[in-house]
């Protein structure tokens, strides 16, 4: 009679042990930020960001890097997806036809402005397209998705890297500064949500900036931002057809296949629909909301650890001007929309 020894899959264990140190680091930072916020007041998201920046020296540590990357990229998607339990379809009426038109205009005009500014700075149109799309839609995710539709060569990889570094930096700066613009300008909840959700690049920073002010502004900003994220689908489909012939010159061997619709957006929309029909209980909604907040605080802590203002200097001054110009353009555009709506 023979016996078999049951062994745990080593791949799963190795993957878990690989991300654990960095993940625990981000959890500790998030817990510290929450403790300071609960006992002394102030926004926990901002505390998580600032404490995280203090630990930037660990961002390239081989033991922590994988966990930090996972916390920054994966947890924010889970957190945003679970925010759907706090929003109903009826809330979309808060955007209104004018709000929807303004957000569509933000995406289209920012891409057009970026192409024009890139031409003025004598930068490649590809860089203008990537930076404009990343600024106008949803940050690094948009840059990666748009990059997959462009000719796959070394220039594409280089420009995508430049865009990712610059967008991450300026989006983090916007997360800190734009709440100050909201408070000093005396914007209402709907106006603040439209401005933050329509002007900040990445989803994580939009959520962080919104919740720094209040949960209501956070919800409104998330709703506006998710509409911009939804714009990624038609933009990517358009670029697929526009650059198909150029891609054929280089072949598709180096292309990275990106999903047309991000999974977290699908989950977010699904939860919004379920909540709109009243199929999510209050207890389940509260639990999901708490999990969402923790995921977002941890992800913001990870973004803080990853933030390096020194790397921005490596881009050269022209790409920095391009990315900064895009950020200023979309923020000024959304502020104009907000103030015109008061007339």
Secondary structure elements and pairings:
Elements: H1 10-40, H2 44-54, H3 65-82, H4 96-120, H5 125-138, H6 140-147, H7 154-185, H8 189-199, H9 203-213, H10 215-230, H11 232-242, H12 244-250, H13 263-276, H14 282-306, H15 309-312, H16 317-340
What is the structure about, briefly put?
The chain has 343 residues and is mainly alpha-helical.
The structure class reads mainly alpha
| Main beta sheet strand tally, sense and closure | none
Shape: globular
- Strand proportion: under 5%
Number of helices: 16
The count of domains is 1
Order of helices and strands: HHHHHHHHHHHHHHHH
Low-confidence stretches: 252-256
Helix content: over 70%
Distance between the termini: 87 Å
Radius of gyration over C-alpha positions, nearest whole angstrom: 21 Å
Summed over residues and divided by their number, the pLDDT gives a mean of 82
What is the tally of beta strands?
Answer: 0
């Amino acid at each position: 009679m023979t016996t078999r020894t049951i062994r745990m899959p080593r791949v799963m264990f190795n993957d878990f042990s690989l991300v654990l140190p960095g993940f625990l680091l981000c959890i500790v930072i998030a817990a510290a930020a929450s403790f300071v916020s609960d006992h002394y007041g102030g926004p926990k998201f901002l505390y998580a960001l600032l404490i995280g920046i203090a630990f930037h020296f660990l961002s390239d540590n081989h033991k922590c890097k994988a966990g930090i990357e996972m916390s920054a990229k994966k947890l924010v998607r889970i957190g945003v997806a679970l925010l759907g339990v706090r929003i109903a379809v009826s809330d979309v009426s808060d955007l209104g036809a004018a709000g929807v038109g303004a957000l569509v205009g933000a995406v289209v005009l920012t891409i057009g402005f970026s192409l024009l500014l890139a031409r003025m700075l004598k930068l490649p149109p590809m860089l203008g397209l990537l930076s404009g799309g990343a600024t106008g839609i949803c940050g690094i995710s948009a840059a990666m998705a748009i990059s997959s539709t462009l000719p796959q060569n070394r220039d594409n990889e280089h420009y995508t890297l430049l865009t990712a570094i610059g967008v991450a930096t300026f989006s983090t700066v916007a997360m800190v500064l734009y709440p100050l613009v909201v408070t000093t300008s005396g914007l209402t909840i709907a106006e603040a949500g439209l401005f933050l959700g329509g002007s900040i690049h990445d989803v994580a920073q939009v959520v962080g900036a919104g919740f720094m002010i209040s949960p209501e502004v956070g919800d409104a900003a998330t709703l506006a931002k998710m509409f911009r994220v939804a714009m990624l689908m038609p933009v990517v489909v358009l670029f697929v057809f526009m650059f198909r012939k150029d891609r054929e010159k280089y072949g598709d061997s180096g292309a990275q296949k990106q999903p047309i619709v991000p999974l977290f957006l699908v989950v977010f929309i699904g939860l919004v629909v379920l909540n709109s029909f009243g199929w999510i209980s209050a207890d389940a909604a509260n639990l999901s909301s708490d999990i969402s907040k923790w995921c977002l605080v941890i992800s913001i802590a990870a973004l803080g650890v990853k933030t390096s203002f020194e790397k921005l200097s490596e881009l050269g001054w022209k790409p920095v001007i391009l990315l900064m110009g895009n950020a200023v353009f979309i923020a000024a555009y959304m502020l104009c929309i907000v103030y015109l709506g008061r007339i």
